[in-house]
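TICKET #2291
ISSUE: user wants both folds in one file
ATTACHMENT 1:
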Amino acid sequence: MSDSAAASSPASPCVSVSTVSGAARVILLRNRQKDRPLRVRVLRQITLDLLEAMGLEAEVGFHFVSPREMARVNWRFLQHEGSTDVITFDHGSTIERVYGECFISVADAVDQAQAFRTTWTEEVVRYVIHGLLHLRGYDDLEPALRRSMKREENRWVRWVGSRHHELEMPLASPLRLSSRRRATTAP
């Protein structure tokens, strides 16, 4: 299947099994929303590069969903109303291996991109990083923990931006992940 077909079809999963330096990484990326096209192959490569740089083995699924589906997941599993940007489910991660699922609201990425003067694709990548950090054990429920997680998130965003600046995604400028600092406190 071509990248353009994968980008336009919400039911097209992109599964990657990669072994680098003996580290097994199984990544599932599934675009389950129709608001914005995603090049899941680009996101897969970014995710694999992140996992390699973090020195992690992985079995992780990323589900890119609509606000309606995110609200259902949020209510069913967390008893919170409404959509949110990222929900991560840890299925038994360890220090060396992440194992879980991340649900990412693309519509929330579009909204946040406007607020932070960035592109929605940059926000999607930020949410992938955010989900991976949760699977590594980072927490953002308390202010001090949130600050620590946000610093690490910003560090990885800069790392991705320095290595993937040449990549482009549909409906967005080149993936240049700005190093603009974000507040480390909740809105």
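ATTACHMENT 2:
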Amino acid sequence: MAAGLAVAGPVTPSQAAASDCTGGARGFRDHPDNASGDTDKPRRLDLGGGVVITLEKGAYVGQQIAFGKISGPTRPGDKVWMDWRAGGWDDGGRPEWPVRPWLQCGPFTVQSHGQSLTTPFKRTSTDPDYQFRVCGSLATNGVVRCATANGVDWW
């Protein structure tokens, strides 16, 4: 897996909130913070000190899903989120739910030392315009980074 890179340019949309994707909003589904996907992680990045963000993939009722995760020796204030973009063909079903340029699912903030956190999951698609990425930051420096593979952050 390739090392992660700091992302140049804006990483977050102008407005983002965990409520944009929790409780079933926009087709996302909540699940336990200790959940893990397949052993093959589409994206992985060590933010520093062994704190890792991963883009996880797995299956739920026969459909492939994706979600973000932060794990390792986390500290309160560390953050993770998952961005989703769909090339305009899936806006979550309602015009007040725009996903352009993308929808940020999170941030979700670590509350205790060593806590693992996941974002809600969303089904994936074979459509190349339907993509995900995972980003995060450490409380110690606040630098936002997104996990990459071969220099590409979106999966």
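RESOLUTION: both attachments delivered.
EXTRA DETAIL ON ATTACHMENT 2: Residues 5-146 form one domain.
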